[in-house]
Each structure stands twice: as structure tokens, then as C-alpha cells.
Design a protein that fits this description.
Layout (H helix, E strand, L loop, with lengths): L1 E4 L14 E4 L2 E4 L17 H18 L7 E8 L5 H9 L9 E6 L9 E8 L1
Parallel strand pairs: 4-5
Antiparallel strand pairs: 1-2, 2-3, 3-6, 4-6
Helix pairs in contact: 1-2
């Protein structure tokens, strides 16, 4: 019943994990960061572009599982500086309908993988 979800349209895992795992109708995505899936390079020049790439990577993982942002039940956002919250939130909001947006938590952390500024994971269901 556990199904591993992978796509070349999102960054390959950089450790012992998968891009997502589907269990029944529920999808658990790993945290996405701003790695360009084509070049394999980090793109962190500004927080708006970085967040957009994170969301596009998340979109690619969802699509690999036959889902969209409409399927997301909950997201977790980890940011290295709460002063970036407004810019991150503006990009994030553009991917959802406010009336049906998922539950969410946003947490400032001391550090993130590869020293990125934002990481986002999701739980989605069909």
C-alpha cells in the first residue's frame, strides 16, 4: 500500500529519503528547497524567487502523484528569518484559493539544509 513517488521535475533527494510517499489516498511530501531540478544548483538570490522555485518543486511532486495544490490538506513552512514571512506568504498564497487553502504552520528555525531560507512540505489527499 506504500508507494514511493519520484519525478525528475523536482530535485533528487540529498539523503536517505524520497520525494514523497503515498499511503492509500494520502501523500506525504518531503520538504522542498530551492534546488533547480535541471541544473541541481541552489537558487537563493532573493526570497521571492527562492519561494517560487520551492513551490514549483512541490507542484512537480504533487503532479507525479496525480495531485494538485487543491489536494493539499496541510503544509509546513520552515523559514530561517521571520522577517521574510510576508514575501514568502505572498508567493505561497498565489498557489492557493484562499477559501479552500490548507491548514498550515510556519516556523522560524536556526538553520535549514544547504543553508536555504525556506523549506516547505505538504500532506495531500485524494
Amino acid at each position: 500500500m506504500k508507494k514511493i513517488i519520484t519525478t525528475t521535475k523536482a530535485p533528487a533527494p540529498i539523503g536517505p529519503y524520497n520525494q514523497a510517499v503515498q499511503y492509500g489516498n494520502i501523500l506525504y511530501t518531503s520538504g522542498q528547497i530551492a534546488i533547480n531540478p535541471t541544473s541541481g544548483k541552489l537558487e537563493t538570490s532573493d526570497i521571492v524567487s527562492e519561494t517560487k522555485l520551492v513551490m514549483e518543486n512541490l507542484k512537480a511532486v504533487l503532479e507525479a502523484a496525480g495531485m494538485t495544490f487543491e489536494n493539499i490538506l496541510k503544509t509546513s513552512i520552515f523559514i530561517s528569518d521571520m522577517n521574510n514571512f510576508a514575501a514568502i506568504n505572498e508567493v505561497y498564497a498565489s498557489y492557493f484559493d484562499e477559501n479552500t487553502a490548507p491548514a498550515r504552520e510556519t516556523v522560524e528555525v536556526a538553520n535549514l539544509p544547504k543553508y536555504v531560507n525556506v523549506e516547505i512540505s505538504a500532506i495531500a489527499g485524494k
